Amino acid sequence: MSTLLEINELRRELREKFPAAHRPAPLSEEPHATSSLTFERGSINEVVSSQPNQGMALFISELLAQECDLPLALIDGRDSFDPGSHGNLKCQQLFWIRCREISQAIQCSDLLLRDGNLPLVLLDLHFTPTRELKRLPMSTWHRLRNQARESGTTLLALTSQPLLPSVKQRLTLTGNFSLDHLERQPPRLKFQEKHLAQRAAL
């Protein structure tokens, strides 16, 4: 019962924070652009940073700056996000969901992708232990992929190593950054980008 109440509360907060996003509107076919990357609408993508100083916090900061005028959901898998590091302007349209367990993060992803009213959902599993992620059945990711495709919402999963099957793009951060980069003009992120063809739905 408590889980159902939490999900209903999440739905209520989502509609209160972004009422305009829940008005019926035709889905756009335009891709979602962030910095020098373009993510296809209705796709699942993975951003990988194997080391803590390779720019994941900077990537999130740039993403928030790019999307500051549009609603963006951040599913914080280990309650590690610090909004104070990014500023009020970048976070004004942010719907921040704080989780401590992988099951909570996946459940929230299910809800937001089915809801389909936010253009972009960021699933931060970067600090989730790899052993926990590997316990997730592959069918979980295929389900999320199909939900994203049906709703038109773009999902970006942040991980510490490549794990997700059938992603549209996989971006690997390769830079060497410190926390000071968040406080001054940010350097250009370094990454390796792979475009991966999605398999047919199971």
Q: What is the gist of this entry?
A:
The protein is an alpha/beta fold and 202 residues long. Helices cover 32% and strands 21% of the residues.
Give a verbal description of the structure:
With 202 residues, this protein is α/β, with parallel strands linked by helices. The protein has a single domain, classed as P-loop containing nucleotide triphosphate hydrolases (Rossmann fold), CATH 3.40.50. It is 32% helix and 21% strand. It has helices at 2-17, 56-66, 88-91, 102-115, 130-135, 138-151; strands at 32-34, 37-39, 44-48, 72-76, 94-98, 120-124, 154-159, 169-173, 191-195. The strands form two sheets. The protein has a seven-stranded mixed sheet. Strands 1-2 form a two-stranded antiparallel sheet. α3 (88-91) links the parallel β4 (72-76) and β5 (94-98). α4 runs parallel beside α6.
